[in-house]
Design a protein that fits this description.
There is one protein chain. By secondary structure, this protein is an alpha/beta fold. Among the domains are: 184-234, no CATH class; 249-443, Rossmann fold, CATH 3.40.50.150. It is 54% helix and 15% strand. Strands 1, 2, 3, 4, 5, 6, 7, 8 and 9 form a 9-stranded mixed beta sheet that branches. Helix 20 links the parallel strand 4 and strand 5. The protein is globular and about 80 Å long. The protein starts with 17 loop residues before the first helix and ends with a strand.
Length: 444
């Protein structure tokens, strides 16, 4: 939601508290909330009816789970200055955050009665109406925001979300395509429209959008990788580290929920496979979970491990893994280089749904072989190439690599790893179809 521009009372001389107020607001912007609160209260000690201090202290309290006190202060500020639009907008934000949707709508509409040319407020009203399950009115609010300011990115996002929820593919695509004229460098629009075309099976249109995105930002790793995925041109041997980091940092908050909805079973399947090859009773194994993500394998591995280390490129995914409280150590690192620096250290290395970001596998296999103790086991999954695909590996429009089993086995042999077991599985569902995969147990 968008907060309105500030209103400050004109200074009345040296004794006026506005200098303290400005300091408080600056601290508030910089998220130094405790210090800001102290200064707001200092202003109110000197001027108990100062509308701006009342208002911004109220906003701060609402943002720190003190909604009742915060809303009361905002209401006092509005009673003192009833015709300032921004106070009503911020009040609407506070109400909406607390779930008071109908009251929030009234606050936003009061703000717009005072000044209708406020795109951020129209956008907030659209968000409110969507929460109220009134999509037609919400679409109108977002369109009003865009009619005032065609560069209002949040309104494009809100408009598209509603249209997507109603399965209005063409309307969504048109809204995004129109947004490029107003927001030629608005990367979320590129990313979402390309994803939409991919989900619709229109890889050519997705490639067109990735080209436009790459023209707008030639150094961005995502369109570079995804353009190769959609066209088969200039395919890299593996996904660039910055592409992986950006993708999964953005995916971290919804990762577990999204994969759960897709019937994702790889952690359970791969740990079941590993349990056949290692001593799970002693609880003393040295285990590395490489590409650990949010740590879905961690709780399954913990009972086996005397030492459990998770490794991933995405700091936000590692934050999620840390909350599980099962890893002895979580490391932000590129896994090949990290394994190379730990020769002969692990009884078990597990790699679930990570090698789909590698085309060639020789380096990761050699590094894993070197990091295993004598008798150690390396268990991993890959996505399987189509039965009639003669390529050793292929980068699909999803941005992930699929591998032929014969190629995987040849790379294992070259790295000095013995194939112990290979098992065909379904890794998850995607676009309504099962994603075929293969689990490999290997050792030295």
């Amino acid at each position: 939601m968008n907060n309105d521009a500030e209103r400050t009372t004109p200074s009345a001389g040296a004794a006026d508290p506005n200098a303290t107020l400005r300091g408080a607001m600056d601290l508030h912007r910089r998220r130094s909330f405790d210090a800001a609160e102290r200064l707001y209260r200092e202003v109110l000690d000197a001027a108990p009816e100062h509308p701006d201090a009342l208002h911004w202290l109220g906003v701060l309290l609402c943002g720190s789970d003190r909604q009742v006190q915060g809303r009361a202060l905002i209401e006092r500020s509005i009673a003192l200055v009833p015709d300032f639009p921004g106070f009503h907008n911020n009040y609407g934000n506070a109400l909406l955050a607390s779930g008071a949707i109908a009251d929030a709508e009234r606050a936003y509409r009061r703000c717009l009665d005072l000044d209708r040319r406020q795109p951020a407020v129209w956008c907030n009203l659209g968000i409110c109406l969507r929460k109220a399950r009134r999509p037609v009115e919400a679409v109108h609010a977002f369109e009003q925001a865009l009619s005032v300011d065609a560069g209002q990115g949040d309104s494009y996002r809100g408009l598209v979300d509603i249209l997507e929820a109603q399965d209005k593919f063409q309307e969504v695509a048109s809204a995004y395509e129109e947004s490029f004229a107003a927001l030629p460098h608005h990367e979320p629009a590129f990313a979402q429209l390309a994803r939409l075309y991919y989900l619709a099976g229109r890889a050519g249109d997705a490639a067109r959008i990735y080209r436009r995105w790459l023209e707008a930002n030639p150094e961005h790793p995502v369109p570079r990788h995804m353009l190769a995925a959609c066209t088969g041109e200039a395919v890299p041997a593996r996904t660039a580290d910055d592409m992986v980091r950006l993708t999964f940092d953005g995916f971290a908050d919804s990762f577990d929920q999204v994969l759960g909805a897709l019937g994702y079973k790889t952690p359970q399947l791969i740990c079941e496979q590993a349990s056949k090859r290692v001593d799970t009773e002693g609880g003393a194994l040295a285990v590395a979970d490489i590409g650990c993500g949010t740590g879905l394998c961690g709780p399954l591995l913990r009972p086996w491990a005397g030492s459990l280390i998770g490794v991933d490129l995405s700091p936000r995914m590692l934050d999620k893994a840390r909350r599980r409280g099962v890893y002895d150590q979580l490391v932000e690192a590129e896994l090949v280089g990290w394994l190379r620096g730990r020769p002969g250290l692990f009884d078990l290395i597990l790699c679930a749904d990570t090698l789909c970001y590698f085309g060639r596998l020789d380096e990761v296999f050699a590094a894993s072989r070197a990091a295993l103790q004598s008798g150690g086991v390396f268990v991993f999954s890959v996505e399987s190439a189509a039965a009639d695909d003669v390529a050793e590996y292929r980068l699909h429009p999803s941005g992930r690599y699929a591998h032929r089993s014969a190629f995987v086995e040849a790379q294992l042999a070259a790295a000095g790893l013995k194939l112990l077991e290979r098992r065909d599985v379904t890794l998850r569902q995607e676009l309504g179809k099962p994603v075929a995969g293969c689990l490999f147990s290997t050792g030295i």
